[in-house]
Structure formats: C-alpha cells, structure tokens
Amino acid sequence: MPPNVKRAVPLSGECDCGQEHDPDHVHEHDHGLAAAPAGSRWHGLGWAYPKDRDKGLFATVDGWLADRRRMDGAEGLWRVEDNLYDLTPFMERHPGGRQWLELTKGIDVTELFFSHHISETAEALLPKFLVRPAAAPRNSPFTFHRDGFYMQLRERVRKTYENIPKQVLRDAEQRSENIVDALAVSSLLACFLAVRFGSYLMGGVAGLLLSLTCSGAHNFFHKRQNWRRYYFELSFMSSREWMVSHAMSHHVFPNTFQDLEVTFFEPLVAFLPYPHKNVAVRYLSWGYCAVLYAVLGHGQFLKRLQSLSLAWTDAVALAVPAAMLLSGAPLWDLWLMWTWVLVVSSLYFAMQGLSAGHHHPDNYHEGDALGADNDYGLMQLAATGNCTGLRGRESLFFSLTHFGDHRLHHLFPAVDHAVLPFLEAALAEHMIQYRLKAAPMTTWEALKGKYLQMARTTPNWRPPINLHQ
Length: 469
Known about the structure:
This protein is mostly helical. The protein has two domains: about 50-140, Cytochrome b5-like heme/steroid binding domain (Flavocytochrome B2, Chain A, domain 1, Roll); about 140-469, no CATH class. The protein is about 45% helix and about 0% strand. It has helices at about 60-70, 100-105, 110-115, 120-125, 150-160, 165-195, 200-220, 240-250, 260-265, 280-295, 295-305, 320-325, 330-355, 375-385, 395-400, 405-410, 425-435, 445-455, and strands spanning about 80, 85, 130-135. A hairpin with a 2-residue loop joins strand 1 and strand 2 (about 85). Belongs to the cytochrome b5 family.
C-alpha cells in the first residue's frame, strides 16, 4: 500500500508527519508504490487481487461478488468496518429494497453503507444487528476516520440536507421522475416512427433517446426502491448487473482493480497506467474502442445468456420491438432497426459515460500515488474530475442524462441529481476548510483526457490533489 502522503487536516492543523511541506516539492515519503508482485499483476493499493478480473471482457458481476466474499472477511454476514452484522431480519424493511441486501451478503459494505446513508437512522439501527467483531482486517485500503475529511463532509452535508424543506425535496425528485418518464415514452415513440417510415435517421434519434433514458434510469439505482430503474433494461443491459458493476463497484472503487467499469474493457482497452502496455492497446484502442462501445448492450446480454443469469427484468427490453411491431413492418426490417437503435444507444451511452471526467491523466488511477491517509472522500475527489460541461445547476435534464455534478454524485450517490445542487455550497466550504482545489474540467478536456489516459504507462508519483495549497 502506498504510504500516507499527507494527512488531510483543517486550516488549523498540520501534516501528521510533523513537517512543514512545500506544495511544489515532492518529499521522499510523498511517493511510493507497492512493489509489483511476481508475474504480470501490478498492484498499487496492496489489497487482495480479484481473480475474476483476469477474464477482462469476460469477467462477470457474479464472479466479482464471489471474489469479494472470498476476500472481505465478512464470514457470510454483512461487514461494516471491523464488525459483522446479520441484516437478514431487516431485508423486507430495507428502504433500498431487498435486492441490495441479497447482493451484498457476505461482503464488506463499509463504503456503500456510509456513502448511501446520509441520515443518522441507519447508523442508529445498525447496532441492533451486531453479531461479533470481524476476525480478519479489512481488505479495502480506504478509511472512514470520524474526524477525517469524508466523515466530516458527510456530517456537514447531512445538516444541510435536513434543513431543506421536505416539499422542496419531493418537488425536485418529482422533476427527475418526470424527465425520465418523458424520455422513456419518447424513445419508444421514436422507435415506432423509425420502423413505420423506414428511417434510419429517426432510428438514430431513437437510439439517442434510449441512451438518455438509460442514463436517467441510472439515477434510481442508488435510491430507495423505484421501478424507474427498470427503464435501464430497454437498452438490453441489466439493472441488476449495473447495481453491482456501477453502484457497488465503480462508484465506491473508481479507477482501481475493484472497478468493473475498468475491468470489462481489458485487455483491449487499459485505463490503468500499466507500465507494459503495448502500442496497440495504447493507441489503436483510440479507434477500436468505439466498436466495443457500440456492442455494449448486445455484449452484456450475450454474457448473461451464456452464464444462464437472465432474469424476468430482461423481458422489459422487449418493449422496444413491441413498439416497433405496432407499425406493421416486416420482422426483418424490425430486427435491423432494433439492432441499429441498440448500437446507437450503446455507443452514445458508453462514449459520454466514460468521458464524464474519471479517465484523465490528472486523475487518480490505481498505480498512482494516492496519499491523504487513503481517506475515502479524498480518493473520490482524486478519481473524479471536476467536469463542469454539463451541470445540474444549469439544466437538470443534462445532469440526469450526462452524469452531471459528478463529484457530489460519487460522494453521495443516493441523493437525487435534482437535489445535488443544494449541497454544492457545503462541499465548496469543506474543500476551502481543507485547502483543497479542484480545477474545473470542460467536456472537451475530459474527452481528450480519456484517450491520453488510455495511452499512459507512467504512474503519477504525486497525489492528484495537493492537500496544502
């Protein structure tokens, strides 16, 4: 594990190494990666390596969950920090729905627990389900010190959130629901019109609308149980899989070995700064990555089919050809148009999703120096670019459909995108208190940075965020 670089402290504090630091000078203890183990695996954070990720494109969410159950020391229960809990009696009462607890049984849910529960209710209930202390140390390197950056930010955000009138919150969330509902209806109508008039241009519009619908549906993965998350199935992808690969994996472990949204593109596209990337992976991937993006929906469906992990929710995808059938078009024309719509949808969804600001050479990727006591919140800021191109304050529509307000969304994913703007001031004040700066990144910079990151082979030895400005 990289050594702590600088302990993040408020303005009145000092680095826990007891030294004054010149922010433009890298000290000997400011950099250092764990030595690469024997073989080709290259470790940066020193946690147990998830074996299933060696399958790359063919890795699965169930394989990842099995690895987590093997490595996390949860002993078939639910682990939060160093204690084990039996949440089985709470399954039917869980506000997020029973499925979350079914998926997370047997793993360490520390990151999920703190990031998805802002109110004090969950922490107050948790001791009722305590079984015993965990025998093994936590596999995750990320910390949640009560006086640390993230937990203090969480407390500040909680107070801000509780001061927002409930009707204001409800009205904001209703706007999100209305937008996603309108997008779903519009995409199905566009699919019907595309086949009715034999227009592949209209089919492209339908694919774009379907992509925006799926991005909006993603807002509901993290929240209380809400049927709108099933709009995601219209794309041939699976909300259950994305609850794991996106919410449980990417959101809490961005740009690391545990990030399935990195794993699923390897070895053809490598976002981590591996020292031995070949020329094809570094540069030719700039072109052929678009092919991988375009078959995302079909590819994920085939993986579920091959592993016999289809669920009843996969039938939701049939709403698209059902809308096309109403046009009376021949089945061959319908199949061709459906394929075209899914290709356009997958291409746009992946292009804008992977360019939301994560994959930029200035952002943290496993192998880079992290430091800052491995605080969970600082890791999220380091791995999530401050992309200001499409923000919720200017347009809730763009925020919902283009992963706007991305820093806050990663820090507090259970908060609706329509509510996140209310929390911006709390984050800004907290960052000032801790002397943190996050330079804004335009959409173009984020897009260009993604390709530069795909070619990067040299780890950053300085932490992405300078803690002492």
